[in-house]
């Protein structure tokens, strides 16, 4: 039994239009419309991890960055402002619309004028943007619990592996993948999702109701029903996720990058020994030199 079967039993509110077989959960525009209300003030959001991320990127000598789940562009914009060269992609045109608008509004700034934004999905990413990849990026970022949007129909998680392989192919030798997921181990254990976290600190998030769908005795999908209340506007949307456990996700990363690849795991952008039970795990994987 597979997670995709589960997804078809427990239907997300936005069924979306598939692009290359990928369901765009943002296609009805509901989540996209309130996304920036949900994440709170952009600067205060990125303030939570900006120094950590930038120091990490600089310590690895990264200059050219590919943001593979840019959404409305929050992290990409922060990196452009910090002097990185950024290429941003996302599968959802409803989310990209906001990034494109920001690029247009700030087109007089050279960094924004040169900002490349493309629609692409992870399952065909390398082929979609081969001409832009050239010799490879110094870093690929997949942040904000984005990767868990990708369901997988196979018990071997073949689609997850395909997507991660595409990320790896977009890196130059020695480049780094920085990718996160919520702490699903804890969500599965408690049945609850923290409404506030380093990414989502908006005072407007009233509630996140969490449902865990078990399929043949195994957790197959986590659905989160968000309730956003702001300025007389109440918005509800549902997003569903694949519940990556830390050990299984680690195993897949190591399989794709090779057992000898450098792998660091952080909790909420801190060393793991500094934090108990983080809301997010962030992995750094380094591609070998040959
Ligand atoms: C939770 S949003 C996060 C956006 C942004 N990183 C942030 O933190 O605000 C997840 C994003 O991943 C994108 N996404 C989901 N599946 C994708 C896929 N298969 N290929 C490309 N983008 C995808 C969605 O369209 C959405 O914009």
UniProtKB/TrEMBL annotation:
Keywords for the protein's UniProt record, in alphabetical order: Cytoplasm, Folate-binding, Methyltransferase, Phosphoprotein, S-adenosyl-L-methionine, Transferase
Residues that coordinate or bind S-adenosyl-L-methionine: 26, 35, 45, 69, 90, 121-122, 143
Subcellular location: Cytoplasm
Entries under CDD domains matching the protein: AdoMet_MTases
Residues covered by the Methyltransferase domain: 63-183
Annotated GO CC locations: cytosol
GO biological process, one term: sarcosine metabolic process
Molecular function, one GO term: S-adenosyl-L-methionine binding
Record EC number: 2.1.1.20
Organism domain of life: Eukaryota
Catalysed reaction, written as an equation: glycine + S-adenosyl-L-methionine = sarcosine + S-adenosyl-L-homocysteine + H(+)
Similarity field: Belongs to the class I-like SAM-binding methyltransferase superfamily. Glycine N-methyltransferase family.
Name of this protein: Glycine N-methyltransferase
Species assigned in the record: Musca domestica (House fly)
């Amino acid at each position: 039994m597979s997670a995709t079967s589960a997804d078809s039993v427990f239907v997300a509110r936005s069924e979306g239009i598939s692009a290359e077989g990928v369901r765009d959960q943002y296609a009805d525009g509901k989540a996209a419309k309130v996304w920036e209300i949900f994440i709170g003030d952009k600067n205060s959001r990125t303030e939570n991890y900006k120094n950590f991320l930038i120091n990490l990127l600089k310590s690895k000598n990264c200059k050219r960055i590919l943001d593979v789940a840019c959404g409305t562009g929050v992290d990409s914009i922060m990196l452009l402002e910090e002097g990185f060269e950024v290429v941003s992609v996302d599968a959802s045109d409803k989310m990209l619309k906001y990034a494109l608008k920001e690029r247009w509004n700030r087109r007089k700034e050279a960094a924004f004028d040169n900002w490349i934004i493309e629609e692409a999905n992870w399952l065909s990413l390398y082929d979609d943007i081969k001409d832009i990849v050239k010799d490879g990026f110094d870093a690929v970022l997949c942040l904000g619990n984005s990767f868990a949007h990708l369901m997988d129909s196979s018990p071997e998680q073949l689609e997850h592996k395909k997507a991660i392989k595409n990320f790896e192919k977009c890196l130059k030798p020695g480049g780094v993948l920085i990718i996160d997921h919520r702490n699903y181990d804890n969500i599965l254990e408690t049945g609850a999702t923290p409404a506030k976290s380093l990414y989502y600190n908006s005072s407007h998030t009233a509630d996140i109701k969490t449902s865990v769908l078990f399929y043949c005795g195994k957790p197959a999908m986590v659905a989160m029903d968000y309730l956003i209340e702001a300025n007389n506007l109440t918005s509800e949307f549902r997003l569903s996720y694949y519940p990556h456990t830390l050990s299984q996700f680690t195993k897949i990363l190591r399989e794709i990058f090779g057992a000898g690849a450098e792998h660091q795991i952080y909790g909420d952008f801190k060393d793991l020994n500094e934090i108990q039970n983080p809301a997010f795990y962030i992995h750094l994987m380094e591609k070998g030199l040959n």
